[in-house]
Amino acid sequence: MTVSILRRAGHSLLVVILVSVTAVGLLSLAPGSVATVILGENATPAAVAAMNTELGLDQPLWRQYGNWLGRALGGDLGTSPLTGQDVTQAILDRLPVTLELSLLALTLSVSLAVLLAVLSAAAPGIWLDRVINAVSSAFLAVPAFIAGPVLIYLFALKAGWFPVSGWAHIEDGLGANLRSALLPALAVSLTEIASFHRLLRTDLIGTLREDYVAAARAKGMPRGYVMFRHALRPSSFSLVTLAGISLGRLIGGTVVVEILFGLPGLGQLVSASITARDVITVQGVVVFVAVTYVVVNMLVDISYGFLDPRVRKAARA
Amino acid sequence: MTGEPLLQVRGLHTYIPTSRGVVRAVDGVDLDIGRGQALGVVGESGSGKSVMARAVMGLLPAHARSTGQVLFDGVDLLTLGRRQREQVWGRRIAMIFQDPGRSLNPVVRIERQLTEGMRRHLGLSRTSAHESALRLLTEVGVPDPERRLRNYPHELSGGMRQRVMIAMALTCGPELLIADEPTTALDVTIQRQVLDLLRRVQTSHGTALMLISHDLAVVAGRTDRVSVMYAGRLAEVGATREVFRAPQHRYTQALLGATPTVDHRRHTPLNLIPGAMASPVDPPPGCRFSPRCEFTVPGCTRPGPDLVRVGDDHEVACLNPVSVAPGGELVGR
């Protein structure tokens, strides 16, 4: 058990380092440097060179990365040369927005997908199932950058139920906060709903053929009870795995909707930093997202034990 | 038999559409089970006995079509609405499945699985359902029931699980128990214990029993009457003792001949039935056993035959029945 946890932790560290190396490597391939952005387009080459030396950007890439990694392992993600802000602080400032957005999107996706999957699996092949499948296929084909404008047009501009853009902090009231978060969350949810629905529908149909479901029905238990008490839990393993992957992806991947809806989250931070060649900030965010991803996946693994007592026993042994 | 039988199946047909054609799993079956009586339903794999039981319990997939009548205490279960049938299932008719490893939900504790029916049908409180569950587990011979209630199914042995299934079937004091191959998935040494338990609770609770098995020996000493099924139809029906003493249908006779007994001479081959089970999609005309039968007469391929009375409580659907009874009685396992 201890060995497997250690192996797991080592594996996770390797993943995080690989991710940050790749991010830095890709960013260094792009032309320009943060010095140009700070000094402006008309700066003399001498001034740019001087600024690069000051920021340590004239050193070889591996040494820059090594220095940064050494400090990062100590918990210091560095300071943005562009804004002079502490990167950790910048991430923490933006995190609540992205986290709320991701969690809201995940909650929406899971609950809607469970509802749809239960409805379609109850009688596969009948009209209701076909309609839900068609809608789900359509959702799967709608990326957030299309769903976003459409939702803004329908529910913000036409109906006026939601703000067109911007973020209301939770201190401004929960209602306003949720209203500003719902449309962007829904925009990223559509594809998730579709994939969750398909996965859970298939697993549910399989579970409903099991003898223990027949046994529960033979006890005269009502259909809804059998579905939620007996069939849903043993059908949800793949869904939990996929939802974990989705949450990791959402935290790092709400860039499009954050820009579209003007939300001050991590996505906006990272996209602004990339444009400005602010490698330090990009590295910080990327590592943070990678760590989150790894942690979420570990939580997913732990959750199997809650879903299935047989896993619990195997883990104890 | 006194009064109206508890369960009367009349002209039951169950057709299941598949990609290979319509499977006529059950094709005209009549059954009677009196109150407190035990009926054995015997037949090889594919004879339609399990589908018949599932049709009675309404457990078939939605695309299966059942016609005919399943009269339980005078009410046709096939015409009842879902809510009304839920009042019958579990409460008045309970079912025990083949493999207790698959018929207990792996992620639900034994306690909930045992008590959910009682709490719903009998409106018991959590504590009285708990006590009732303890009493039932003790009755079916599960040691340390308090601990077992907190267990998950995988923490119990196969025999214990089937005992739990029997206890579960008894929770609401049903009038009819349907046991579909209740011991096929168990170790041979456990089979007998479970069968004897089943018979014991059946007699002590005064419950009627439908015991389905491919194994004649399982049914032999434990049922009052027996129905032999072949390819979705009844071959022979009668008092168990009578059918085993003097089987009349050629299929029953062949089935008995294929059963190894203690007296069987060593190193001599068993009498097998040649050929394979008739196709359920495109059954042979007339008697469905005729392609495998050594004793066919010209009429065997014509439509029919119907059940004909040959004894006090003994009917057979055969044009050339065994008229001479073979000696010896089958010894139940």
TrEMBL record, chain A:
Main localization (coarse): membrane
Sequence ranges assigned to domain ABC transmembrane type-1 in this UniProt record: 95-304
Membrane topology: Multi-pass membrane protein
Keywords of this entry: Cell membrane, Membrane, Transmembrane, Transmembrane helix, Transport
Pfam families reported in the protein's UniProt record: BPD_transp_1, BPD_transp_1_N
UniProt subcellular location: Cell membrane
Recorded superkingdom: Bacteria
Entry keyword annotation includes Transmembrane: yes
PANTHER family cross-referenced by the UniProt entry: DIPEPTIDE TRANSPORT SYSTEM PERMEASE PROTEIN DPPB-RELATED
Family according to the record: Belongs to the binding-protein-dependent transport system permease family.
The protein's name in its UniProt record: ABC transporter permease
Species name: Kineosporia mesophila
TrEMBL record, chain B:
CDD domains associated with the record: ABC_NikE_OppD_transporters
One Pfam family here: ABC_tran
Major place of residence: membrane
Localization per record: Cell membrane
Keywords (A to Z) from UniProt: ATP-binding, Cell membrane, Membrane, Nucleotide-binding, Transport
Span of domain ABC transporter: 7-256
SMART domains, alphabetized: AAA (SM00382)
Coiled coil: none
UniProt entry tagged with the keyword Nucleotide-binding: yes
Statement: the UniProt record of this protein carries the keyword Protein transport: no
Superkingdom of this protein's organism: Bacteria
Entry's Gene Ontology molecular function annotations: ATP binding
Membrane topology: Peripheral membrane protein
InterPro entries cross-referenced by the UniProt entry: AAA+_ATPase (IPR003593), ABC_Ni/Peptide_Import (IPR050388), ABC_transporter-like_ATP-bd (IPR003439), ABC_transporter-like_CS (IPR017871), Oligopep_ABC_C (IPR013563), P-loop_NTPase (IPR027417)
Record-linked NCBIfam families: oligo_HPY (TIGR01727)
Protein family: Belongs to the ABC transporter superfamily.
Protein name in the entry: ABC transporter ATP-binding protein
Native source organism of the sequence: Kineosporia mesophila
